[in-house]
Structures are given as structure tokens and as C-alpha cells.
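Title: Comparing notes on inverse folding

I've been comparing how different people in this forum approach sequence design from structure. To keep things fair, I'm posting one structure and asking everyone to reply with a full sequence. Here's the target:
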């Protein structure tokens, strides 16, 4: 995993690269980090040659990403991606194993409950199997995802799924709305 300092450095480098002129206060607000920490990180990035500071007035300082800073930002992103891709593959394997252990037989109609990162992985696994995703259900998120309008549990009976794969906590009241003909399977890790 990337440490917090790397993430902070990456976010600062990214913000400086994207912003025309950004102050420490704006960086603090944008990244949710106190101004003193931003100041410390910027001094460190400047000392290492990744950022150049222009101007004499601390309140009107302009920060520019150097070529060395652009290379460092890319390197941090690559290391982060490489570490997280291995983690992603392990989590996807766990999701594949959980879904693979379900006895579907000839019942292929599946719904997913919970708009989460885990749901997105389950969606990908379902696409690789001979299953029919009939609905994505979430009582808090009424959005459109993967071409599906997210529905509430009160609508699930209209889609008649054989299985409801749970990717986030399903409260007891909402669970009562799921038809008896739908088998609920918790695939959370």
C-alpha cells in the first residue's frame, strides 16, 4: 500500500499540474489537509526539485511542477497502480470463488444489492459467467450504473431474480421486501 506521505505528495503534484495558480490554503481545502502539513510537504517537494516556487510574497507564491516533478508524479502513480493491481486481482479471485460456489443450477437470474466497489467486481464476474443480471438494488443510491437504473428493495419483486448477491449491509426491514423465491447470498469479503 502507498503510505500517506506518498499519497499527499501525489495529490499535491497533481493539483499543481492541473491548477494555473494554487495557494497553500487552496491545496489545504482541496485535499483536506491542514495548511502546516501542505507547507511542510511543499518545502520537501521543492528541496527535492519536484516543485519550483516563484514569487517573494508567501501569500502570492506560485508553484510550478518541474520536469523532475512530472516524472516523480508518474512514478508514484505507477507504484501505486502496481501495488493495487495485485490487491485487485486477489479480491477479484475471492469474489469469483464466492460466486462460483453458489449452486445456480438452471436459475440464472441474479440481482446485486449495494452500489459498492465490491458490487463492481461482482458485476464483472457475472459478465464472465452465464448469468443474467436483472437488477442492481440499493436503497440509498438512485443512480444509473452499467446501463441499469438502480432500484430500491421495494421494486425487486418486479424483476424476479433467483439470487440476490449482497455487497453491503442489508437492514432487516429492507430484507423483508425480498420475495421468498429469491435466495439471498452474502458475497462480502
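Reply #1:
Here's my take.
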Amino acid at each position: 500500500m502507498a503510505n500517506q506521505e506518498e499519497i499527499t505528495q501525489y495529490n499535491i503534484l497533481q493539483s499543481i499540474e492541473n491548477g494555473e495558480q494554487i495557494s497553500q490554503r487552496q491545496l489545504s481545502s482541496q485535499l483536506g489537509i491542514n495548511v502546516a502539513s501542505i507547507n511542510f510537504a511543499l518545502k520537501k517537494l521543492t528541496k527535492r526539485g519536484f516543485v519550483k516556487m516563484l514569487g517573494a510574497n508567501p501569500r502570492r507564491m506560485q508553484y510550478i511542477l518541474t520536469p523532475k516533478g512530472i516524472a516523480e508524479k508518474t512514478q508514484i502513480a505507477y507504484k501505486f497502480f502496481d501495488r493495487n493491481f495485485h490487491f485487485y486481482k486477489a479480491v477479484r479471485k475471492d469474489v469469483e470463488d464466492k460466486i462460483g460456489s453458489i449452486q445456480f443450477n438452471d436459475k440464472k437470474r441474479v440481482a446485486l444489492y449495494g452500489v459498492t466497489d465490491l458490487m463492481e467486481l461482482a458485476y464483472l464476474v457475472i459478465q464472465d459467467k452465464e448469468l443474467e443480471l436483472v437488477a442492481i438494488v440499493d436503497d440509498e443510491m438512485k443512480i444509473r450504473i452499467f446501463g441499469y437504473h438502480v432500484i430500491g428493495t421495494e421494486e425487486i419483486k418486479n424483476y424476479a431474480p433467483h439470487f440476490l448477491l449482497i455487497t453491503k449491509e442489508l437492514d432487516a426491514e429492507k430484507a423483508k421486501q425480498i420475495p421468498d423465491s429469491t435466495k439471498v447470498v452474502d458475497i462480502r469479503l
